[in-house]
Amino acid sequence: MISEKKINPKNTWVTVNAPTESDIAEITHHYHVTQEMLGYAIDPNERARIETDHDANIFLIIFDVLSKTITDSGSTEPVGIMLANDYIITFTRASTKFVDTLFAKNLSIEQAHHADDAEPLTIIFRTLYQLSVQYFDAITNVNRQREQIQKTTVDHISRRSISDMLHLETSLVYYLTSLKTNNALLTSMNRMTSIKMSKDQHEQLEDVIVESQQGEEMAQLATDIIERVANANANILDSDLNNTMKFLTVFSMCPCCARHCLRLFWSKCFGAFSAVRGRMGNHHLYYSYFHPVGFAYPEFKQFFQKIEV
Fold first, then answer.
1. Which GO terms describe its molecular function (predicted)?
2. Helix, strand, coil: what percent of the chain each, to 5?
3. Domain that holds residue 46
4. In the listed set 71, 97, 123, which residue is the last one of a domain according to the structure?
5. pLDDT tens across 111-125, in order?
6. pTM of the predicted structure, to 2 decimals
7. Which of residues 97, 118, 142 is at a domain's end?
8. Residue 89: in which H helix or E strand, if any?
9. I want to staple 64 with a disulfide (CB 3.0 to 4.6 A). Which of 48, 118, 226, 257 is the partner?
10. Which residues touch 78 (CB under 8 Å, ≥6 apart)?
11. Is the dihedral of CA 28, 31, 37, 43 positive or negative?
12. What is the pLDDT of residues 46-60, one digit of tens each?
């Protein structure tokens, strides 16, 4: 879907959300965007960076933002902000549509203060600033979830808790990677001379860089903490498993030991019975048959003394 809104008498903001084939054809013909640059802008797997086409007078910012909600899967997605001649074109999808909402609010603020002199770069930098700050809430949310998991593992560590930790660690990998690439493109943009920026706009861009770098540091610290906690929990769980296996190994040997002891016991018992039978003859055979333990008491006593030793 494509829609337009005037920024000032010269520049127009164009929103492109989940473009269809007809939308793509309109973008290339009406706004004079090359197929190559358009492909970069709408690719959902494109990495954050800056692309320029001097011949077509196109400058493209691909910026990684959070998904629709920070609690979904902790993933990030690229959005495209293109300066093509007199047009500012934003490329979003359903999960990043909120970027258009932020841009529209910043456009209204800029127009309220400067009326017909609204600056497109000022609106873009203010939007990038807000998108960078959003990472703070996402990282804080991950830290909060990690603390909750740690509370549940005080008395008992489960596979589920380790799995939850790994899920959080995966989210932080997305955040950290996106913040690093965002920082690289922002720093590169700050050094570019092909973009005409006022002093205030340079300061705006530097503020965006500061916030993005702070987000990267927060994500790195949170990642280090989760890695250490997850490794510690995994080591404890492995230790408990090893102890359990040792116990089961010893326990599985007990029946064998018991059978061996009983075999020795009854061999002693019937040995004593045979000795008594030889001394008493067949006259007391019936009695001695049912009372071997009593006659073999000295043998039993000696046998159990050996076992105790």
1. metal ion transmembrane transporter activity
2. 70, 15, 20
3. 1-97
4. 97
5. 988 877 889 999 999
6. 0.75
7. 97
8. strand 87-92
9. 48
10. 43, 44, 45, 46, 47, 48, 62, 63, 64, 65
11. negative
12. 999 999 999 999 999
